[in-house]
Predict the 3D structure of the following.
Amino acid sequence: MLILDRLLTGLHEACAAFPDKRKGAGDYSMADIGLSAFSLFFMQSESFLSYQRSLEEGRKTSNCHTLFGMAKIPTDNHIRSMLDPVRPSHLQSSFDQVVAVLREKGGMREFEQLGGRTLIALDGTEYFCSYKLGCPHCLTRKRSNGKTEFYHSMLAATIVAPGHNMVVPLMPEFITKQDGAEPGEQEAKKQDCERNAAKRWLVAHSERVKELRPVYLGDDLFACQPFCEAVLASGADFLFTAKPDSHKTLYDFMNGAALNEVSHVRKEGAKKLTYRYRWFSGAPLRDGKDALSVNWIGVAISDAKGKTTYDGAFVTSLEVSHENVAKIATCARARWKIENESFNILKNNGYHLEHNFGHGKQHLAMLFVAMNLLAFAFHTACDCLEDLWVKAREAKRARKRFFEHIRTITAYLVFPDWQTLMTTLINSKPPPEIEKQIAG
């Protein structure tokens, strides 16, 4: 488990550099405090630290020490208090390390599309809402019952690929009041908020991901000239949904024009589907002499009876031809993976993204969400690169069962390393040195 150990060592260094509000030396290092919080998300167990404290009392050691490299386990309240002033950006090096390890070990090959390009999907999501808890960074909105609701949301950036059931979350950009939403106006300005956060994400991260040769995916709200120009200025390309209602000039320009067209018939399981691709090159994205010229792609899928089961359209800065239109359209539709393979898993499959692990008064809510995403990224790296991890996942079949077993056995047994833990899961039997703990 050298790759996981390497990632955790990097995270230890990142946590050790967290700002420490204490004036003198404390009982717990910032590394222990940060890793303690992260361990909850990595093990998908809100009670992990409680069980480890019990093990430490009886065995004088715990999985916090052997697996995560902590010296001491802080109390939950101390963790929240010490981490509240820490900005999520302090975890950036660990997000970068995940991508670096995947590239170094060949884990990025399955994500590469369109001749070595990387698809990065952008989308916004909420991760906290409450009528009672709030902080200076909370957005607010008036509900129909007259009450004011506090909430947090973020602009997520995720590496995706069509046909790949894994995704790699990158550092998100948090949507805050600076994005133009005033109390009571958030619903009306949701698109502006996401766009502004996306622009900030590009400024902060475009140079960092430049070697991935990114193509950015997103829904219709990103298909506006200022953001498309920002993407191009960063050296990347875009592939965004473009609806007729929000792109009147674009569709008026193409109205009556001869469109390029090609169709393919595919058999998918028992279904016979017809894919119809249309495209037009050099259409204006908006009105005006300075309008950005884009290429438009339309995709319609119909079943054997001729019934249309999908109809979508996109604008892109990529050149479109008979040879690549189908592939580009497939990549464009992969933006849904940020919903299905990212948000859905984070909210409904063990990560509990919307659960309030601690809100704080400064940055705690944002830091915990960043740690949750980082745990997901670490898991993806293990899924792609760690053979023992993969075998253990396969032995327990479903992701949910895999983490259920981890939670259960680490509550009662201390494992000297990740390799021993994974081997125990694979064999459904602990090695002799671990069995002695049961006998004892």
The first helix runs from residue 2 to 16. The chain is about 40% helix and 20% strand. The chain has a mean pLDDT of 92. The chain has two domains: 2-83+386-439, 89-348.
